[in-house]
Amino acid sequence: MRAIVCDAFEGVDNLKLVDMKKPSAGPGEVLIRVKAAALNFFDTLILHDKYQFTPELPFSPAGEIAGIIEAVGEGVDPHRVGEKAIAYIRWGGARDYVVVQQDEAITMPSKLGFEHAAGLMITYGTTIYGLRSRARMQPGETLAVLGAAGGVGLAAVEIGKLMGARVIACASSDEKLQLCKAHGADDLLNYKTDDLKEALKDMTYGHGVDVVYDPVGGDLSEAALRATGWYGRFLVIGFASGAIPKMPLNLVMLKGVDLLGVFWGEAIGREPADHAENMKQIMAWVASGQLKPYIDRRYALEETPEAIKAIANREAKGKVVITL
Q1: What is the Cα gyration radius of the chain?
Q2: Are 146 and 215 in contact (CB under 8 A)?
C-alpha cells in the first residue's frame, strides 16, 4: 500500500511517499480502506514533536479518516465488511489502509460523502466538548470565537449557533469573516483592523462576552480575556499563533472567570460516556442536515506535504482533506 511517512521529527519537508506492506486485522480489529483523510492544525506540530502526544517513528500524519471496512478480525461481526466507517486515530491516516479497534470504527453518516465525513470527528468533537462539557454554555449567551474561519473555529461558529448562542466571529480578514457569516455567525470582528477587547465590549454593550473560544493564543488571548463578562468562561483550545500566552491571573480573579483547558484527545478516553453523548448529538445534527464540514481544499495523497504547508501558513479555511 501507499503511505506518506515521517521517519524523523524534522518537519513537513521530511515527509515521503513510500510503498509498504498492507496491514491485516487482528482480534477485535477492522481493516479500513481509506477513502479520505482529514488534516488539522496539530499535524503541523506533530511533525516537529511539539504536540501533546508523541507518535512512534515512522508514522503517517492525519488523525481522522473515512473509508470502507474491507476485513475484520476474530471476534468482530463479519457483517461489518463493506460498511462505510469513520474513525479518530490521532495519526496514521495518510495511507491506503489502517487498522483500528472495532469500537473505534463508527458507522459513517449516510448524509455525508467520504470527504466530508473524514473531517467530522476532531473539530466538531473538540468543539462540542469545549462548549457543552467544559463551558456548559446556555442558549442566549454570547460566544466569541477567535480564528473563526479555521477548521476548529468554523466548527465553533456552527455548534455555537446550534446551541442557541449569539456568535461573534473574530478573524484576520473580511474574506474569512464572510465565510463565518455564511456558516451562521451573528456578528463579525476583524482583529487586524479593530481592537479586539474594545470591539467585543462594544458588541456586548459593556457587559463582556460569556464564553471565549480560543484556538489561536498569542496576544489575542489576553485581549479576549479582558473582554469577558462576570463569570465568563475562557476555553483554551490551542495555540495556532505559535505563542503560548501568559495570562494575568488578577483579571481571572476580578472577573470571576473560569479558565478551562480543552484537551479532547485525552478526555475521550477518560470520559467515554460523555464523549459518546457528544458524538450522538453531532450525528443527530448531521442527520438533520444542520452540520456538514466545510472543505476548503482537497489534495491527493502525494500532495500531503503541500496540504500541511497550507495549514501552517494559515492559507486554508475550514477543513483540508486528502483523497485516496
Answers
A1: 20
A2: yes
* pTM score over 0.90: yes
CA distance 161 to 168: 10
How many Å separate Cα 284 from the centre of its chain? 18
Instruction: Give the span between the Cα atoms of 161 and 156, in whole angstroms.
Output: 8
Q: What is the pLDDT of residues 69-124, one digit of tens each?
A: 999 999 999 999 999 999 999 999 999 999 999 999 999 999 999 999 999 999 99
Look at residues 3, 45, 37 and name the one whose alpha carbon lies nearest to residue 320.
37
Q: Could you give the CA distance from residue 295 to residue 311 in angstroms, rounded to a whole number?
A: 13
The packing angle between helices 121-128 and 151-162, to 10°, is 50
Taking alpha carbons only, the member of 130, 200, 180, 162 closest to residue 294 is: 180
pLDDT per position as a tens digit, 36-82:
999 999 999 999 999 888 999 999 999 999 999 999 999 999 999 99
- Closest by Cα among 128, 55, 130 to 93: 55
Q: Residue 127, CB half-sphere, CA atoms under 13 Å: how many?
A: 27
Element (H, E) at 151: helix 151-162
Instruction: Provide the grid cell at 281.
Output: 448529538
